[in-house]
Design a protein that fits this description.
218 residues, alpha/beta, Rossmann fold, five-stranded parallel β-sheet, 10 helices, binds 2'-deoxycytidine-5'-monophosphate
Length: 218
Amino acid sequence: MAIPVLTIDGPSGAGKGTVSRLLAKKLGWHYLDSGSIYRSLAIGLLKKSVDLNNVAEVVNVAKAMVLEFDCGDELVVKLDGEDITAQLGLENIGNTASIIAAQPEVRRVLLQKQQDFRRQPGLVADGRDMGTVVFPDAENKVFLTASSIKRAERRYKQLKEKGIDANLSRLTEDIEERDRRDTERATAPLSMASGALFIDSSDMTIDAVIAEVLKLIR
Ligand code: DC
């Protein structure tokens, strides 16, 4: 029997992570945070001081990296045996991930690592190209977005809560630049899969978004 997949794609900060994690829990399914795979590679590259323009070297690091995911209540990620969870959410890691993600060769190497998450009884997959490229045969697809201002405000609040200094207009600019890069790249750009349910979460609570998605599945 085909293993069911629910894909949730959209720009950064739309709430995909929170919504996907809660949905996976409700459904009793596995969870793939595909952005964390690109982020893990970014951490590995920065640690090894690899020139990001040297595609062959970036691909070598991508092929060699050993990732371990523990998707319990809190996601724990190990890269080559080292716990990198605390670094995953850093702004420079997200921006570096977005830069290397534009390379088709890099995406090709990371494709299988993402598809390996598809296990019984089902998978909730969150990213940019889950419904278009990684799991095109998924029966349930969602495109979750929000205005860039709302997304920057949410990020600002998260950072402040962690005691990290942040600047709202700088965050908005960063988000818009990342959107541009993720949407305009030639390979697997961020776009809505055909047949996907479009949700704009700008003025919605997390619970309302989850209720909307669950209607699709039932
Ligand atoms: O979802 P995120 O912010 O953790 O993702 C970080 C970057 O990784 C994002 O800006 C683009 C890249 N990415 C991607 O290209 N494809 C995915 N499926 C997930 C992330």
